[in-house]
Structure formats: C-alpha cells, structure tokens
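#lab-general

N.A. 3:47 PM
ok so I finally got the sequence cleaned up, no stray characters, all 57 residues accounted for. can someone with queue access submit it? mine expired

B.Y. 3:52 PM
send it over

N.A. 3:53 PM
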Amino acid sequence: MNKIQEHQVDLVASAPENRLYTRATKMVELGASIEELMLECELPRAEAELLLNLHRK
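B.Y. 4:20 PM
back already:
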C-alpha cells in the first residue's frame, strides 16, 4: 500500500502544471523576483505575487 501511495505522489508531482509551480517555488526560495517568475514560468503577475507571499520567509 505504501508503494502505491508513493507512486501516486510521484505522478501528481510530475504533472506539467505541478512541475511549473515546483520550479517557481524553488525560484522564490533562491530569491527570484516577480518579473523573473512571470518570465521564466509564464505566470500572471497575481500568481507570481501570491507565490512570493506564500513562500518567502
């Protein structure tokens, strides 16, 4: 059962839209700006601002 759950988590994480947000989150952790998120991850300004507010310390 644990192996199935791990596989399901891997599948969800590998979905294209999830990889985009994973990348954007990593960029925020590395100090990316709103403009960088918008350009590199093709996010609208509102989503980039939200990610910054949620993940910056």
